[in-house]
Fold this sequence. Notes:
By secondary structure, this protein is an alpha/beta fold. The protein has a single domain, classed as Rossmann fold (3-Layer(aba) Sandwich), CATH 3.40.50.720. The protein is built from 7 helices and 9 strands. It has helices at residues 13-24, 36-45, 61-75, 98-126, 146-166, 198-202, 212-223, and strands spanning 4-8, 28-33, 51-55, 80-83, 129-133, 171-177, 180-181, 210-211, 234-237.
Amino acid sequence: MKKNIIVTGGTQGIGKTMVLHLLEKGYDVTVFEIDEEAISEFRQEIPDDIVAVYRVDVSDEQAVKKAIEQVIKRFRNIYGLVNNAAISNNKSIMELSLEDWNKVIGTNLTGAFLCAKYAATHLKKSKGRIINMASTRAFQSQPHTEAYSASKGGIYALTHALAASLGPKIKVNSISPGWIDVSAAKKNAVAKQYKFRPEDHAQHPAGRVGKSQDIANMVLFLLADENDFITGQNFVIDGGMTTKMIYV
Length: 248
């Protein structure tokens, strides 16, 4: 029986790249996605008999519970859960409403909690993995990112808490991407390849802006059987940006 991996927010951006890499490595893949337009475009490219796509609001407990039940009915196992679904709403704190705040926290943080909660029983049976997508914004910020940064800081803390609670059968880690170019990997209505300047690449010690493949590669690494001694950790994939000391 092939190992089944759930990727939330998997129809575009980094999530879609993860899905394609997982397929190449022989995994079954399930996607939880709320964006109907993105789902439609994804299904035109990758039919349902190859990747199962469920329309799920990950902040809705009953929707998550039902979707997990459907996944088990179809695939009979869950080996991996990649909590990738996320939104942002970057406004001045004076303009950011409580509704705005709750929607970001609900999708980015509560969604990861709910998916982990209802997948955990099945992940224990498969001795599986949870991979949470945090962000370098969990550790450093630009102005007007309070909701997003708080949600990603919460993901970082949720990760080590889950690792302690669900171990040793389930290994739980997080990935914190830096600047990853997904400008052309979104749904058609918003996809537009960003033209990078030399200085965009040069400010990274690695010499370039990140690619979604860089994150997918780390997901595959953490899913690999031989890496079962790694849990409770956060992996910063940012081309070295967060190691820099910047003086003006």
